[in-house]
Amino acid sequence: MRSFFHVSDIGDLKTALEEAKQVKATPFAWKKLGENKTIMLVFFNSSLRTRLSSQKAALNLGMNPIVLNIGQDSWKLETEMGVIMDGDKSEHLKEAIPVMASYCDIIGVRSFAGLCDRDFDYRETVLQQFVDYSGKPVISLESATVHPCQALADLITIEEYKKKERPKVVLSWAPHPKALPQAVPNSFAEWMNAADVEFVITHPKGYELAPEFAGKARVEYDQMKALEGADFVYAKNWSCPGVSEPAKYGQILSKDMAWTIDAKHMAVTDNAYFMHCLPVRRNMIVTDEVIDSPASLVIPEAANRVVSAQLVMKRMLEGLQA
Ligand code: CP
Q1: Ligand 1 shell residues, CB under 6 Å
Q2: Alpha carbon distance 42, 111 (integer Å)
Q3: Apex CA 249: angle with CA 9 and CA 85, to 5°?
Q4: CA angle, residues 153, 308, 137, in degrees to nearest 5
Q5: Dihedral, CA atoms, 232, 237, 239, 242, nearest 10 degrees?
Q6: Residue 130: which of 316, 39, 308, 3 has the closest Cα?
Q7: How many angstroms separate the alpha carbon of residue 82 from the centre of ligand 1?
Q8: Cβ–Cβ under 8 Å, residues 208 and 220
Q9: What distance in Å separates the CA atoms of residue 317 and residue 322, rounded to the nearest whole number?
Q10: Amino acid 62: pLDDT
């Protein structure tokens, strides 16, 4: 595996889920695979789960993880091409990436969407430079448009907790005080469309996800109707993806607290589990009552981030050996 951005990069999903079970059951079985190998984890943005689960996964595989916080531990990096570098950015990605690549075997990158320029974000301008200038396998640790390590962990969690062969999974928009990127809902939609589930997306009008991620998923604007009979409720906020109105890209269109997942919402489901990628704003996205209930999977879901990261790194290490 040379890159991990999309569901297609993992190959057959059933095979991947079986492999994830093995990784979870025997996390230290591949300790020799990563011997004398280094993974560089590059963070342009904050993280708790991704940083720690990636480090843990690398250590489980016998690899040496190096974490770099851009702009804090390093110089500030310029990401745009052809600019006169007379501002506060001391180094360009064009030099920094090959230098970082010379110190490692695999690179993971966290680089959020700026939410100002839709084309810049949806072309994955920063992540693509890591592909172009590193010559190393690259993992998106949440980039402008995708968060595949999260989506794989979510799918592993659904597989573990499902009570039906083909469960109903609902992705519900929920309110948030700040404008957030679309990477998590984009990847969740992409992965659920590929999985053996009944998938429904619900959000206020204007929040339609980009067609390459929403695919053929049913979109239901009536949140209560969407949640009827659900087995899993996946709550997430995202800002306007700018599909029908590019000028509104990255804007907050609604803060309607009627969309906060509470006991009334959960009551119309089929005893659904509640999921969220974390970090979560309590009593904005979900009420205390729901997230503190036995239906909440947020902690096992976060724990599965180690499994998903380890599976991806294992595949990349095997690719380096081939
Ligand atoms: N879910 C997730 O990626 O968490 P962090 O932003 O803390 O890494």
Answers
A1: 47-50, 142, 150, 277-279
A2: 9
A3: 80
A4: 130
A5: 10
A6: 3
A7: 32
A8: no
A9: 9
A10: 98
Tokens at 277, concatenated: 């990628």
Substitution site in 182, 236, 305, 308 for ligand 1 pocket (most atoms within 8 Å of beta carbon):
305
Amino acid at 307: V
Q: Whose CA is nearest to atom 3 of ligand 1?
A: 50
Q: Evaluate whether 261 touches 223 at the Cβ level (below 8 Å).
A: no
Q: What's the number of CA atoms in the CB half-sphere (13 Å) around residue 243?
A: 14
* Distance from C-alpha of 221 to C-alpha of 196, rounded to nearest angstrom: 23
Q: Three-state secondary structure along 107-144?
A: EEEECCCCCCCHHHHHCCHHHHHHHHHHCCCEEECCCC
Torsion of CA 36, 40, 46, 49, to 10 degrees: -40
Amino acid 298: pLDDT: 98
| Residues 295 and 266 sit within 8 Å (Cβ to Cβ) | yes
| pLDDT value of residue 322 | 83
* C-alpha–C-alpha distance, residues 108 and 111, integer Å: 10
Nearest CA residue ID for atom 6, ligand 1: 47
* 43 φ/ψ angles, rounded to the nearest 5 degrees: -115, 115
| The residue count for the chain | 322
Euclidean distance between CA atoms 52 and 289, whole angstroms: 28
Angle at 226 between CA 151 and CA 207, to 5 degrees: 65
Give me the residues of the chain with pLDDT under 70, please: none
How much distance in Å is there from the Cα of 110 to the middle of ligand 1?
10
Token pair belonging to 229: 């009979």
- Per residue, the 3-state secondary structure of 148-163, as one string, reads HHHHHHHHHHHHHHCC
164 CA → ligand 1 middle, Å: 29
CA of 139 to the centre of ligand 1 (A): 15
